[in-house]
Predict the 3D structure of the following.
Amino acid sequence: MQPAKARARKPSPVATRRERVQSKEDAIIAAAHKSLTTRGFAKTTMAEIARKAGVAEGTLYLYFNNKDALARAVLAVFYKRLTETAKTGVAKCATTRQRLEFLARHHLESIIGERRLLELIASDVRNTQAYEGSDIYKMNREYVAVFDGVMRDGAWRGEIEDSAAQWIKRDIFFGSLEYSMRTLLMKKRSSKKDISAVVAELVKLLMGGAGARVEPISGHALVKAVDRVDAAASRLERLSTVKM
Amino acid sequence: MQPAKARARKPSPVATRRERVQSKEDAIIAAAHKSLTTRGFAKTTMAEIARKAGVAEGTLYLYFNNKDALARAVLAVFYKRLTETAKTGVAKCATTRQRLEFLARHHLESIIGERRLLELIASDVRNTQAYEGSDIYKMNREYVAVFDGVMRDGAWRGEIEDSAAQWIKRDIFFGSLEYSMRTLLMKKRSSKKDISAVVAELVKLLMGGAGARVEPISGHALVKAVDRVDAAASRLERLSTVKM
DNA sequence: TTTAACGACTGAGTGATATTCATCATATAT
DNA sequence: ATATATGATGAATATCACTCAGTCGTTAAA
């Protein structure tokens, strides 16, 4: 077996040329990833990346046309990994509710960890006129397709309402999570609990709010009404004691 | 009247020194706004802004410490205007549902128009360690407070459930809208209809889901009775304060 | 009136950084 | 061994945010 290895001209322990190039590219991407996620796009310099990767500055441009392209490459491996883990995670869940919960928590935790990469999407990639058709666009499509699949399947099984358009639900799902990330990052402590709260609420909304719908409706309104009667009574009492 | 004018040393028709400085600052911000919204942060140069504003490059630094600060100033006038129009718009709406619909549409249309400014929030401002306590942070707080007020009031009236934490609802609201913006910008045609669809769905979710739920609550006999007690209390209050 | 001080402003100059390119090094092919 | 192609280099270039020594007009003081 291993015909590729067997056909190698050189019996030397060093890798083939192609492998060497590949590993160098990997090293560059890894170095760029580290700098981008720790210092952000604006503050990372090509010189810094080159140093971390152990290559000359000019070498970076043999592998990537410019800083943007390098950042996009970093984003690409992030998306690839994100999509893979999302797919395998969903496959392990039995119900639609569990799948959505997993996807939400998975997305939220992932983007909290790599928050700085989201800058790139917002400020850089999305602005290019040629975003559609780009690699990043395709990867994004593939990633959100996981969510779409779960929702479609859930609707087919009758586990969730499918009233609204799919793209709207998708935007609500990912939009809420990305915005929540900002809030969570600003809160000093707490995390686990807050993440769970966001996930639970979001899933509840997307599932149609079904679980909580039956009882609370009349009960909820009733409680509110009682509160208001109570408040109104207090106001009346105050008036009467003042004796106008 | 107009003691300031009367006290002015010079009767000349030109503006006072302070006014001249102010109008120059306005010109700089306007120029920066134009460049930032049309070309994005990275591609606008200080030289370009200076040219548009009709001042020397060095002058920009008399008014703003650096490019970031100038961008933040642009963001500030955007927030100020956004908050004002949001407040006045909400005041004109009678029901919670209408208020939320107005806020959602208002936010979505505004950020579609000034989409490039959102970059600044995401990629620049939010990264600074000192974001809390900054002017932009305060303005953001004031803006989202409009939404918070509407939600709180709606919960008080019993028009909406207030099961989830307020900050979660807030993130869902603004997050969904900002993400939807991206989708809407990528769709070739259509706008009005899609905006309405997003707004409707989002409001439906925040109001507690099912459309059928709204009717029974307000139609409930108890709620009507509460309205009457509430109104009666208010009338008495008015009467008593007038007399005293 | 002359002089000094001040505030607003200028734009050539500085430093940092992305990007290029002439050149070198090594491996592969003949 | 020589030639060729591939990979790599880092000094040089271009761009751009930012600085600063100096100008100009106005006000205050002598």
